[in-house]
Amino acid sequence: MEETNKEATKDEIKYRGIRAMPFVIGNETFEKLGTIGSSSNLLVYLTSIFHLKTITATNIVNIFNGTCNFGTLLGAFLSDTYFGRYNVLAFASVSSFLGMLVLSFTASVSKLHPPECENQGTAPVCVGPTTGQLTFLLGGFGLLVIGASGIRPCSLAFGADQFDPNTESGRRGISSFFNWYYFTRTFAVMVSLTVIVYVQTNISWSLGLAIPAIIMFLSCALFFVGTNIYVRFVPKGSPLSSVAQVLVAAFKKRHLQLPQQPCFSLFNYVPSNSLNSMLPYTDQFRFLNKAAIKTPEDQINSSDGSAVNPWRLCSIQQVEEVKCLLRVIPIWVAGTIYYVSVVQSQNYVIFQALQSDNQLGHINFHIPPASFIVISMLSITIWLPIYDRVLLPWLRKFTGKEDGITLLQKMGIGIFLSIVTMVISGIVEDKRRTLAITRPMLQMTQGKGAISSMSGLWLIPQLALLGLSEAFTLISENEFFYKQCPENMRSIAASLFFVGMAGSSYLSSFLASLVHKTSSWLDEDLNKGKLDYFYYLIAALEILNLGYFLVCAKWYKYKGRAGDNKVRERKDQNEIVM
After folding, report:
1. Is residue 417 within 8 Å of residue 468, measured between CB atoms?
2. CDD domains this protein is in (predicted)?
3. Which of 202, 310, 342, 544 has the most CB within a 10 Å radius?
4. How far apart are CA 472 and CA 380, in angstroms?
5. β-strand partners of 466
6. 529 against 550, higher pLDDT
7. pLDDT by residue (tens digit) across 163-218?
8. Domain range 17-226, CATH class
9. 428-446 b/e (C-beta count within 10 Å ≥ 16 → b)
10. Does 17-226 match 323-564 in CATH topology?
């Protein structure tokens, strides 16, 4: 969209929809190829090339990943408040490219990394990095953090912005976009974890880190090529300030009584340049409605009808926008707890694979344990096109809904599938451990124990179900945040997903540490532990989470729409999940 059209009203915006998708999705695909290709093998790179101790390298990688996820809050705030999604994405994409370029230099330029280890006697002698080398490396990480903090919360919302939410074709386009976005994203991650990681590990770190940098350059180029056809919304002030104003005004007027007909009596002012849709009055969080009670002390600007002091008098529309944000928080909590099962499955399935027979058939090829994770991604890439092109049209005809089934229904199905995944994981682990004890193979796993004669291919069902569960829950959660939060808070809403992922990782670590200290379930040697019990514990946690989610979904009211200055209640406001 041209710069001169940025101030246009919503009715004047020319949505390009599907025409913008090759640039948006292509940018995201290349960006993920580059980012995952650079970061997925960092632990190996830091220990083998920079000769850092395992604990030091682990801490650096954990801090890097955590900062990337929590940094999305800052990126989202800057996007929604000052710069807009396009500008933040442009700046963050260039920052990511420069970060990858710095990382590739640390591998290709000999003076930017320590010399190779020298064999002296029985043990190799390795020299650690100098202060300058480590500073240059951390500078690259800093650029990558800046890039991730801007790209992650804005990319998905920016792509969905290209569709008109006020038309049926636009709303269907948004739903399909979310599916195809994750399809290409997952495909890119698969390629990064296989092809690029193989090049880094077995051919050359210089080449293996140069490839992501080149790919990220292509991502930036593709993004800027589509500049003239993008819809770019200009932020209209801080959405967080709006939230604070409602909370403060409601507190100041906490002793006032609400009128009997609040939807007609409360102060209702809508700025002419507002990005947000008109919302109907709702009874949830009624105490916040007091922020819109007009008293004799409240003054109104004669020029535009706005409140002179927005920290004392807020519009009911402003109050309803804050309610939208508050309503999604309980759903976000359920999504965060759900992701614990994903984290634990991805972690411990690798240890299961380490102590299973990974030989593929009768040929002399053994599947690397870490490669089993690709199965869940493959499950997602297979399921999403089938759902979008085959199942979704049928569901639309059957239910009469644009989305086939509601977003909360899809999330509920995903959480239920996570329970089934954990139960199957426990059953398979019990079988693996039994065979490891009764019919072990001749070789042993270093630092672990006997290898079970059970084929590692028995891990496929739980991983395939895990991918299917993610396809239902995580995609729906992101689409839910985008559609249910006010338009001027969508980047902040997208950042909730990544903050939830970070919280899930910390919660998973806490849970695993607690179980390890209080029981012998998570022994280094799985044959001596009871990993199946741990899986059943996660299943029980997800059962409680599903119950909590159903209660929240029953309570939840979907964001309504008000058109022609009249309030219209959505038919599916009170629809429950299952």
Report:
1. yes
2. MFS_NPF1_2
3. 342
4. 9
5. none
6. 550
7. 877 777 777 777 777 777 777 778 888 887 778 878 887 788 888 888 888 888 88
8. mainly alpha
9. bbbebbebbeeebbeeebe
10. yes
